[in-house]
Protein: Mannonate dehydratase
Amino acid sequence: MRMTFRWYGENDDKITLQQIDQIPGMDGIVGALFDIPVGEVWPVEPLLHIKKQAEANNLVFKDLESINVHEDIKLGLPSRDQYIENYITSLRNAAKAGIQMVCYNFMPVFDWTRTDLAKPLYDGSTVLAYDYHLIAGKTPQDMAREILDNSNGFVLPGWEPERLKELSHLFEQYEGMDEDGLRKNLEYFLKAIVPVAEEVGIKMAIHPDDPPISVFGLPRIVKNEDDLDKIAAMVDSPSNGFTICTGSLGSNRQNDIPHIIRKFGKMGRVNFLHIRNIQVHEPWVFNEVAHKSQIGNLDMYEIVKAAYDIGFDGPIRPDHGRMIWGEEGRPGYGLYDRALGANYICGLWDAINRTCGQL
Ligand code: DNO
Ligand code: MN
Structure:
């Protein structure tokens, strides 16, 4: 496996590449071009620039998260073909810059959703949390306002104040679209892009819906094993694979994550692992916690063991962490707790390798 750390770039991340390099066992960064509007082509040069910066700090840059999918593709509008062409060009350019894995999601309107970006835990750390009671009866605009008041100016992707102005229009466009309709649009997209991804050596990795349930009445199609089966069947290629995000899938306790890793790993479809732990209080009321198994509901040993057993050689990253030790900044994406998480995952991997490996 390749241990990686998400990095928001020299302008937007106060964590430096040197700090990331100082985390034991860290092999690379997961990056993106954050200033290209969704739907436009990602050029090669800025990707090569990140690669150069990473390599100057002993890190590889082979993984992108995310090249976002334009809403017209999810909606299946006639304009989607041009956006798909652009996506294909972005993939070709990414491959030229040495990229091997591209994470994306297919959630309508919003990316991941939380009701609290800084819920205090018993020890004074703060975490991202979701409580469906707080969403019931509210409009996305109400929610966004509440989150903004409580987030040091950071907002979740897709929840930017400028974008919220277009919300009513977007919601109208999705009227009448059910899961099957959205699935057809994903299939259309995958049939167009996966052959190119395969040709240029890129593995696509769709991220699960987070939380894996309909939010504000919008359809969601990446929620559980059954959904993953349907997506895997759309295009039979190792380039049509998954990001197994333990915290996203794990917020539904029916999802057996080690089983999911083993099943889709055997099919060669596990292309990216996001590892984090979560504490579920009741269905759709959860908060994130430190990575260690005993602190949350997920058995990290079983998860890492499953990855080990499928011979996983792709990127793993510690997903969100708590904010601890007085650190401020982007909720979920601080340095300290993600570094602890990475170290914990490396410790599990090393122990498993020592007891089960060929060495
Ligand atoms: C949530 C995070 C997400 C993820 C995007 C992928 O678990 O990992 O921000 O990066 O949804 O497109
Ligand atoms: Mn994730």
